[in-house]
Each structure stands twice: as C-alpha cells, then as structure tokens.
Amino acid sequence: MTEQVMAAIDGSKFSEGVCDYAAWASQALGAPLTFLHVVDNHPQTAEADLSGNIGLGAREHLLEELSHLDEQRAKVAQEQGRLMLKAARERAVEDGVDDPAGRQRNGTLVETLEELADEIRLLVVGKRGEAAHKASDHLGSNLERVVRTLHRPILMVPDSYRKPEKVMLAFDGSKTTRKGVEMLAQSPLFDGIPVHVVIVGAETGDNRSQLDWALKTLRDAGHEAEGAIRAGEVEATLRGYQEENGIDLLVMGAYGHSRIRHLLVGSTTTTMLRKASGPVLLLR
Question: Does residue 64 form part of some domain?
Fold first, then answer.
C-alpha cells in the first residue's frame, strides 16, 4: 500500500483545519490523501444506570429497548460519518487535491491507526476531538494516546488553516532531532520555507557544533536556514522565539529523556502542544 497523508476527522471544530492542512501536506509531498472517520461503537453504560431498581420483566424489556437504541445510534453515527467524509473530500478537491479518498472504520481511533500504520506517511489530526470539552485548554485524550502509540510523523493542527511560511525545529543534538534535521532537509513538505533551528541551553562548544551541523545540512539541501542557542526554561524559551520570529509551524521530537523531548510523560511538550496556536509536527 502506498504511504499516504491520512487525516482523522470527526464532528469537532478542528476538522476544517485538519482538511486544509492535510490538503496542503498531500500536495507538497505528492502523496495521496485519505480522510479517516472512526465510529466508536462501544456499548453504552445506560443499562446499569437505568435498570437497577425495576422488576425483572421490565428490566429485560428495557435492555431490549436500549439495545435497539444503540443500534440506531450506530446507524446515525455511520451516516453522519459518511456525510463528513464526503464534505471533507469535496473541500480537499477545492483545495487542489486530486481524487482524495475516504475511509470509515468501526472501533477506536488508536486501534484503527495502529492497524493502518504501515499506510501512513503523515497523520494529520486536530488538537482536540469531538468528545473534548468545548472550552477546554487541554489536549484531547485521543491525541495523547495516538502520539504515545503511533510511530509515524503526526501533524497536530488548529481549527483554521494558515499556510506555513516559517518553520522552527526544537533541536538538542539527539538522534531523534538529528533525524528531524535530515527529514526537514530532504522533505518536499518544506520546500521554499525558511527553517529556524533553536537549541535551548548554554553557549557551549558542543551546542555550537551541533547547531552548525544542522544549519549546514539544511543549507546544503537548498534551504534558507538560521539558528540560535538560547538559555532558559525550555517551553518559555521556545515559545518566546516562536513569537519573536513569526514562526507558524513548530517541529519537535516525540519522547526521549532530554529536556526538549519529554512528551506527555513530562510537562514541557505537553505545555507546548496545549498552548500552541499553530500546527506542531511531532517526529518519532
């Protein structure tokens, strides 16, 4: 199966941003685009809530009714999903994508993405899903589980699209972030987009050597690149640099033991993702 850009959509306000960023990525990478909608048909818990203190016969009748309602809800959810996929494909065509596909699966998002992992070149997902609290400033629980599980690049996006014009890589010289530099250098996703490489730490010979290597790798590949070494607390320093330089896409390594790469098991990247107003590309 050809690796593709896969975009997970649901009924959340982030789905429009997912559609537009996925269309941009698909065209930049020259990769097929597939929209994915997952219907979670896990059993409802209403039976236990509603039938605890009624007679046996009535309880059996109620369970039959609840089962019927579950079936109806599943059918409605599937039809809603088909309509969302149709609308997403139409939006992607308007954005310039040729023949985007749509897939609907039953189960959970994480399990489905695990099954489809070999087909995914890039996953595009919203910051929060349909089930998240509307006013929440936190990450959606699905996003956290997906990032923990899926060993593929993940582009987390906001609810509205803005074409990336400057990219920043949070760099620490680790294997993951060195691979990130090489990916940025080679990937057509960032053709013509200036790249900023930022190390949070002291101005040491090793850090300077690492930064020089990163900049040379990017420039040798034809990118406009600049870098900085800044001391300070990681999240605040990166966010400050991003704001000062008008960065509209952040690239970070996922997981690991360094300060920058504490994703979800620590606070740094969780905070970066939670406070991000623009897209964040997470590398594995």
Answer: no
Last residue of a domain, one of 157, 187, 214: 157
Same domain, 244 and 111: no
Check: pTM over 0.85? Answer yes or no: no
CA distance 276 to 168: 13
| Position 88 in a domain | yes
Give the integer Cα–Cα distance in Å for 165 and 50. 54
Rounded CA separation 5/196 (Å): 25
Q: CB-side exposure of 177: number of CA atoms within 13 Å?
A: 28
* Encoded tokens for 66: 């609840």
CB count in 10 Å sphere of residue 75: 11
207/128 Cα distance (integer angstroms): 35
For 208-246, the pLDDT digits (tens) are 999 999 999 999 999 999 999 999 988 889 989 999 999
Chain centroid to CA 72: how far?
Answer: 31
Q: Do 11 and 148 lie in a common domain?
A: yes
Q: How far apart are CA 29 and CA 122, in angstroms?
A: 10
Find the length of the chain.
284
Identify the domain containing residue 33 by its residue range.
4-43+76-157
Give CA separation, 146 vs 82, 224, 259, 260, in Å: 23, 32, 21, 19
| pLDDT score, position 64 | 74
CB 20 within 8 A of CB 29: no
Q: Based on the domain organization, do 97 and 232 belong to the same domain? A: no
Q: Which helix (H) or strand (E) holds 251?
A: strand 249-253
- Calculate ∠ Cα 144-150-152, nearest 5°: 120
Q: Which of 29, 26, 16 is nearest to 191 (CA)?
A: 29
* Residue 103 burial (CB count, 10 A): 15
